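Morning. Coffee machine broken again, so started the prediction first thing and wrote up yesterday's gels while waiting. Chain of 268 residues, entered below exactly as on the submission form.
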Amino acid sequence: MLSSLRPLLMFLCVLLAACVASATAGAAETDLDRSRIAARLKAAYPEFVSGIDGTSVVFLDGTRLLFDDGKAKSAEERLADPDIDDMFRQPYPWGASLTPPEHDSDPGRARNAAFFSKIYGDCRKPGFARSLARVAWLPKRSKQTLLFTTVNGAAKKLQAVSDELDALPSKFDVFLVPSAGTYICRPIAGTNRLSAHGYGIAIDIGVKRSDYWRWNKHGANGAPRYRNEVPEEIVKIFEKHGFIWGGRWYHYDTMHFEYRPELVDLID
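Came back before lunch.
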């Protein structure tokens, strides 16, 4: 009897071993991803983040935020209710050529509200404005000043961007001047989620040559028809200083840039 069952038992043992090996490899991959994310967070927010411990992002003041809620989410659910891990699910293509994004590819568009409120504060609470400073926007061609957060050196980064853009030829002016604005405490259009503008980390450049997925006609299947006129030279200057561009989103917003240094992939 036992001899007749031996092939089946051997098969089951092999199958079990393969499952254990697969689970172990999966755990190792998750740990590696988590360690890389921890390194990014510490490098991007050195005055705030200590690291990741188990299921929590740990801050230097000892407070914690949930890193991964363990839920499997659709693209829409990742935008509506992202945990911190979800912010890194879609790698941002720093320095890549300007091509239409793939379906539902919105790298950086998912923002965990608790994390950003922890770093930058809540604009709906008293005293938030004390974290803002005025940045001279392209002073050689404009007298515009823009409010931007000083937290984590963000205002200095925007000023560096402005200085480089100001050195571009005048043919770029139509894309840049006047800026459509920076800080405003408001939700994202069509949602109840706070906009990146509400944290003082986003800027909209000129409107005249910009495109937004809600403005343009959609295809027969309801998919946004991608459009962009913003030149690569402008995008690369922003990206050089840690800003992501809304033109790299499937749900595109080509005037929009926001400071997101945690999405920069560190070189080993």
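The first strand starts at residue 49 and ends at 53. Going to sketch it on the whiteboard this afternoon.
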